[in-house]
Amino acid sequence: MPLNCGIVGLPNVGKSTIFSALTRAKAEAANYPFCTIDPNFGIVPLPDKRLDRLCEIFKPKRRVPAVVEFVDIAGLVQGASKGEGLGNQFLSHIREVGMIAHVVRCFDDPDVIHVAGRVDPADDIEVIHTELALADLDSLDRRLDKLGRQLKVQDPNLKKDSEKEIAVLNKIRPALEEGRPAFTVGLEPEESEFARRSFLITLKRELFVCNVDESGVKGNTYVDIVKKIAEKQGSEAVVICGKFEAELADIEDPAERAEFLQGIGLEEPGLALLAHAAYRLLGLRTFFTAGEDECRAWTIRIGDKAPTAAGVIHTDFEKGFIKAEVYHYDDLLQYGSEAAVRAAGRMRQEGREYVVQEGDIVFFKFNV
């Protein structure tokens, strides 16, 4: 699965404004549908106070944060699954991302055009879900047709494999016909592997992004509607004021940024919440390497073992993996220095089967 997040939604809900604020890149944003046609890509540093603290302790020459890639995809409209509004092109872009950040308009403004002529978050979400489900039903039917032909072959293993996959797709079909995402269907791990072969869009995790105006930073009735939908399908929702975030992105001075946030009653930017939520829903985990040369946050998948984590740094580290010296960020906070952590016996030697944990600080030993 790709480690990136696609920003989707109806036209004119603020996708490109949020993308520009996230990446400090100037994606085109305009008050008319389809001002974005080709997807925009941006790498977003993940805010992490732990990395800031590591830099205070080790005083390194370089600070390198973990990152999340966001993709700004043009707005979908009703009929996208049938090609309306360049729908086929945009749907193909969504298939290439790891998860979906679904931006929903949660503000009233007569000067900003709404494609349906009214603001209705529940209806807007239903339009997107319906189009994605219809696109997936089309993919599912094509896959079932191919599998049906495979049932006629003589190879018993291929026939058995095809039968299992057909059963999984038929389990997913009712949800898609109701306009529900495929990921809401309770699939066993083996079933999920079969389902992935159809490259269904709605198997991707979905994060709702409530785009509000200045008066809705603390929430409003529109946000309440989105949060209920998110909770019902086991998702999350974050609240962002795209206008504020765009203004904040242009402020370089940290003190001035803090003052700006305080002025609107926020402790941290909404975009930081979005980046962390995307990172979490992508199933990612952070470990650190720390020293005088560099303090760095590295990204792995939840469940990755020590050799795999070593390979993220360099393939030679994985090939020649010997062991990992590991302690936790919390240990460093408690004892104040790496030497003190070692003296307290909190430094561990871990082997190939060790599953790297969130917040681990690791030094890999290898030989090639």
Fold-level CATH name of the largest domain: Rossmann fold
Output the strand order for the largest sheet: 2-4-1-5-6-7
CATH superfamily heading of the largest domain: P-loop containing nucleotide triphosphate hydrolases
Percent of residues in helices comes to: 40-55%
CATH architecture of the largest domain: 3-Layer(aba) Sandwich
Helix and strand content put the structural class at alpha/beta
| Number of helical elements | 14
Low-confidence stretches: 25-37, 83-87
Total number of strands: 12
List SSEs in N-to-C order.
EHEHEEHEHHHEHEHHHEEHHEHHEE
- Gross morphology is flat
Main pleated-sheet profile: 6 strands, mixed
Please give the alpha-carbon distance between the first and last residues: 29 Å
- CATH class wording of the largest domain: Alpha Beta
Rg result? 23 Å
Task: Count structural domains.
Answer: 2
Sheet-strand content, in percent, reads 15-25%
